[in-house]
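Structure ticket #2291
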Amino acid sequence: MRVKQHVIQGFFISLIFAFTARFMMLGGSNKNLAILHLSEFFCVASVFILLGVIYLDVDVKAAWKIRKKKRDYSSIFTDIWDALSWVCQLILFVIAYSLRFAVYYPAYWITKKILPDKYVQKIENKHRSFTHNFLGIFISAIVFFIIINFLIFLISKNNYSMTSFLSSLLFSFSVMIGFIMGAIIHLMQDSYAGHDKEEFALTPLSPFNLDIKLYGNYSSWDDLNSHDKRMSVFIFLLLFLSPVLSLLILMHSIFGLGIVILLIFNLSLLSIIFLAYGIKFDVKIKIKDKITRLTSLFIKIIVGLAVLNLLLYIFFIKF
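Resolution: structure written out below.
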């Protein structure tokens, strides 16, 4: 998938979770202090989902170059659009290169130093390598966690205390969780975009196990990005419906159960969107020499999610 669509979809998904957390905060402010704190934690994590989505592609320098479209005509609308596009590209450029130098390179170096020699040679500084496996994501998240704590210390060092330290740990942990969520979303987006070739497959357990590969037959370049755009529209519609659905669920259910239903409902719809694309683009998993198509598994999961939401509606919604 192209960087642009990763960013757009990641932004929409981040807002969906932020809206969910916000409604949890509004509903829980006078009812349950624990739920209020949990929703605040979740809201902070949601904001940083986009950084995790961006991070996995910081190993590609060309993807973050600032480009200007050549137009045959010019008007005030195209000029405004081009200016906004340039600003957005500049912001993404700053974020991507900050993550590249502050997180990617330190995490890459640390991983090379701590792993046994037989695994070190399997870690490469190239696209879909270090950032596209669980080990790389985990170590990068820890580096990100340390950086956030250090920045908080620098900002508040004059009034730093044990309370400040504990608060910074909690804040940094919520940021790290959001970062990991965004990275996993990126992996899900890339799992069906493998050109139906093993050389472009994800190896999520690398460098420990290179025999497990995940890939599909989608190519964003050959399809001119149209499928990515459709998926972005589906996620945007869920974002558009999220406030309305949240109000309906929280108004017609017991508060605690309403939160559960709301979270499961949003997660279910997002999962169904990704699973549907996984079916469409024939995602496969290769373990050693055996290739298994995941279509039937994805269909079962979709049916299971639909049944789960229906049961929640039947048993927990007040009429």
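Closing remark: The CA atoms of residues 130 and 310 lie 40 Å apart.
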